[in-house]
Amino acid sequence: xxxxxxxxxxxxxxxxxxxxxxxxxxxxxxxxxxxxxxxxxxxxxxxxxxxxxxxxxxxxxxxxxxxxxxxxxxxxxxxxxxxxxxxxxxxxxxxxxxxxxxxxxxxxxxxxxxxxxxxxxxxxxxxxxxxxxxxxxxxxxxxxxxxxxxxxxxxxxxxxxxxxxxxxxxxxxxxxxxxxxxxxxxxxxxxxxxxxxxxxxxxxxxxxxxxxxxxxxxxxxxxxxxxxxxxxxxxxxxxxxxxxxxxxxxxxxxxxxxxxxxxxxxxxxxxxxxxxxxxxx
Length: 281
Prior knowledge:
The structure is a single chain. This protein is α/β, with parallel strands linked by helices. It has helices spanning 14-24, 30-41, 51-58, 62-72, 77-88, 95-104, 110-131, 134-144, 159-171, 207-218, 256-273, and strands spanning 150-153, 176-179, 196-200, 222-227, 240-243, 248-249, 252-253. The strands form 2 sheets. Strands 2-1-3-4-5 form a 5-stranded parallel β-sheet, sandwiched between helices. A two-stranded antiparallel sheet has the order 6-7. This is MurR/RpiR family transcriptional regulator. Keywords: DNA-binding, Transcription, Transcription regulation.
């Protein structure tokens, strides 16, 4: 890759960084592509990792990581790391802080809270109605309706969605498995050729979910992502990315839109798998 292919300026946001990766992906030589795939899938680790650690994760020499930084537009690794340290510095407050903030606003009565969460859910669903892409949904359903077993993973806030999907798949007799991390067991050995993974994660992205998606991709499994945006770290690992907008109140984020999308995907997958013409032999 010559200097003309090197970006003129460094990305100024994490979103712009992922957009730059997507634009460069097909033009990178093997080692730089390995860097792009690993770093894109583990962007949350850039802020706390060394060049050597990222190189080991991508299975490339450290010099390849340094060259990758320059290709993306940074002067070096330090500049790229600074972007991610600044981006990930603002973290969601802990629950004690959130509750204290609600008390200070005198918004802690049950009726007031119910009204606020109803409004957050309404706004989330309205945003979903405006942004839902039929082609993306069809792609996700097509991918997962032709796999042997649908593996479902989602931790922390995404866990209620993942467990609901596993429940619905069970009721529809769709072969599935919930990866819940119980006892720190990953069940990676259950990922078999011909299976698919439905991965669900939102900022701050779950490392466990990203790791399982990375492993599934490495094993050749189909991966569908249910996440917040197309520039999510899951995007580079997925065959289909379904973005879901969610509005928060008091730093408590709604799941209304996510549950709606999960319901639609589950029922559509169950219906299509029940169709003799489309079901996997």
